[in-house]
Amino acid sequence: MLTAPSVAVAGPALVFEPIKGTVFYSEDPDAPWFPASLTKLMTAYVTFQALKKGEVKPETKLTCSKNAVSQAPSKLGLPVGGQITVGVGLKVLIVESANDVAVMLAEGVAGSEEAFVARMNEAAQRLGMTRTSFANPNGLPDDRQVTTARDLAKLTRAIIIEFPEYADIFALSSVQVGKRIMRTHNRLLVSFPGADGMKTGFICDSGFNVVASATRDGRRLVVVVLGEPSVATRTDRAANLLENGFRRYFWKSVFGRTVDGLAMQASLSDGPTHLRNAVCGQGRAKPVRKRTAVRIKAKPKSTAAN
User: Fold this and answer.
1) Cβ atoms 23, 137 nearer than 8 A
2) pLDDT band per the 50, 70, 90 thresholds, residue 289
3) 40, 91, 199, 252: which is the annotated catalytic residue?
4) Strand bridging mode 23-27 / 61-63
5) What string of H, E and C letters represents the secondary structure of the chain?
6) What is the pLDDT of residue 89?
7) Which one of 26, 37, 65, 133 is the catalytic residue?
């Protein structure tokens, strides 16, 4: 078995091979958690489905509505009536984690945000994400928006297997719209050898989350890390878990269990842990859960899902 890196907070984590689903490391894979902007993986997945069905095309124009403008940062910041294409929107969604663009994609693909969220939940059920519920397309705070590390692994596998043609979007380190250049929140893309995706997420209640992919010598691994107290610890824990996974790749590939085959673990609480006080203020998280009490001096500015 792999040993997890020593960190002040150790939330749920999962390391797996995305094609066969072999699990290399698992910690609290079924603990309920707020996904924050990892939600946008499902927003991208539903948009990919619409593209495949011909409902929209990469060049289809998305129009910025009042609803999109009203979303909290991170944002692209178009005015009402401003337009970008679906193709550009997907890049901005992943690189900048733009909450307004998530709503623009939702409205452009399904006609309304509510109809798109229904598609997200339908897709989650079809993929066997039995402990996931979506309430919006961007991951901004909503107590109804809940997932688990295992369910995020199932979603990530679906994206990689069903839509390999969009892999380059998740590997982008920057994207330019007009004169504005936006750079990825995923530090692993510029610091971890072989990193090639996927998405970060943060709101105060979730802590810092990431789903990260890396490929070495033709071997690909994906890590899900939830609930870290900072960008730095999120990056370090994900990198350490990936590094350990590559070192033990052959042994675990032969003897490891799959994402679906892991024994279902009982939840330690009725709902997701709220880390707002621990991550964005002073105090302790509620409800108290193993390894979630942490004191952070610096207060992250953003309340957005990025």
Assistant:
1) no
2) very low
3) 40
4) unpaired
5) CCCCCCCCCCCCEEEECCCCCEEEEEECCCCCECCHHHHHHHHHHHHHHHHHHCCCCCCCEEECCHHHHCCCCCCCCCCCCCEEEHHHHHHHHHHCCCHHHHHHHHHHHHCCHHHHHHHHHHHHHHCCCCCCECCCCCCCCCCCCEECHHHHHHHHHHHHHHCHHHHHHHHCCEEEECCEEEECCCCHHHHCCCEEEEEEEEECCCEEEEEEEEEECCEEEEEEEEEECCHHHHHHHHHHHHHHHHHCHHHHHHHCCECCCCCCCCCCCCCCCECHHHHHCCCCCECCCCCCCCCCCCCCCCCCCC
6) 98
7) 37
**How confident is the model at residue 263, as a pLDDT?**
80
Distance (Å, whole) CA 208 – CA 237: 11
Average pLDDT over residues 93-121: 98
Is the overall model pTM greater than 0.85, yes or no?
yes
Say which amino acid occupies 78: L
Would you call 112 a catalytic residue per the annotation? no
* Active-site choice (26, 65, 74, 97): 97
Cβ atoms 210, 230 nearer than 8 A: no
CA–chain centroid gap for 128, Å, is: 17
